[in-house]
Amino acid sequence: MFKKTLHAFATAIKGLSLTFRHLFAARHARKELDIKQDNYFDKQQGVTTIQYPKQEIPIPEVARYQLDVEMDDCIVCDLCAKACPVDCIDIEAIKATEAIGKTSDGSVKRLYAAKFDIDMAKCMYCGLCTVVCPTECITMTDNYDRSFSSLSELVYQFSEMSEKEIEEKREELARFQAEKEAAKRKI
Amino acid sequence: MSFYIIYILVAIVLFTFLAGFTLFAVYAERKVAGFVQDRLGPMETGKFGSLQTIADILKLLQKEFISPASADKVLFATAPVVVFVAVYLGFAAMPWAPELAPAALNLGLFYVIAIISIEAIGVLMAGWGSNNKFALLGSLRSVAQIVSYEIPAGLALISAVMVTQTLDMQEITINQGILTDERLFFFGFWDVSEIGGFFAWNIFQAPHLILAYIIYFVASLAECNRAPFDIPEAESELVSGYHTEYGGLRFAFFFLAEYCLMFLVSMIGVVLFLGGWNTPLPNIGSWKLAEWTTGMAWGIIWVLIKTLTVVGVQILIRWTLPRLRVDQLMNLCWKVLTPTAFLCMAISGIWRIVVMVGN
Fold first, then answer.
1. In terms of CATH architecture, what is A67-162?
2. pTM of this prediction?
3. Count of alpha carbons within 13 Å of B137, Cβ hemisphere only?
């Protein structure tokens, strides 16, 4: 019984010295946060807490986080929506009457994007849409941290056109088609 | 008349100190817990989370009093008050500095040990009054534990009292430093009445008192239901023990009582064994360090430093050692601590007669 108690005291002192060392090691925080560094595993002493919004772990450049669309480069080809396995991309295109400009890589834009919605609640971050995009306008950013108070806010709307503009372009297209139809009939 | 005003003033000052200490100790506890586990502890409220406990207490103060429908309303409401008042009254006899004690009782130590025991009744009231099986189990465990551990704690204290030959806390302290009229011996062979410092502390006046202090320290951990003896509050089995049903200010009172009791038992240990308000610095030749650092302000500083160090060890122990089982707890108390404490008491008697009188 006494032997056991003495052993208990000895081990208790051992444990206390261990926690005591940790108590004072807490003056230092782990500095190296990037796992790609060679010395990452050498620095194990000190506080391991990462105070997230103030302190961030470096992330790889090419990683699969939230989607972003550069609308100026988009030719509204609808390939991303077709590639999406979960159908989270919803595109509505309006034909333009003529070429409306060029993207940064030289492709000609012939369609207006009346609607370009990505439902991030549905998105499974597979990245297939970024692969098929011919102009590389849909990309995955390094932003993995967004929260919203309502579900509808998770549907990102990338289309830059206002209701009025959409209406205008529709009418323009209708007029153009009517004219074309009329021209055909004349012949 | 001014008599009563001073009494009330002393009580208010003590309560303010204890409330401040509790806020600080809870913060320290959480920080130590964090650091020991390589975490940071509270960081968001104030600089380094320093306002965390103030925010906590403000939250507790705003909460509604809720009594369970089947609870015994009277017992339920009075239990936290009884628990806190029992601990609070214990501070009445504690010496803070030469000539400075709320009440210089000549039975001081006896009074303090007796008044702390009342806490067990409060805990039982809380457990029974809650009408909750977890609370009742917790309080039964707590009472069993407190009652058992009072025996080794009391015996260890008595072995110190037998060396000092008084129950007056103030006199016990005086007899451990340069202010004494008696002759003090370091381990019974070296006269340190003029040298003072830590050589004159009770713990170094007789070697077996070191053992007695360890017994007292272990027993005092159990008396304040601190880990590794926290089976009354064992959160993995009993939700949170006897205060399961409590919330708001009533819960705050239990918390206050727990931390005040930590301070009180540490302070009793400091007064009985570690020299109380006496300085740890001895007189060395013409360097009269002990004389320079003895006085009213110094006394309060020394007693605070010593007590807070002991409280710090208690906190560190909580975050190091796992909880004992009930049978291990009782084995330790009845089969190890109590016989050893009896042995210390017997040695104290022999020491007093053979060594101290012989000198």
1. 2-Layer Sandwich (3.30)
2. 0.82
3. 15
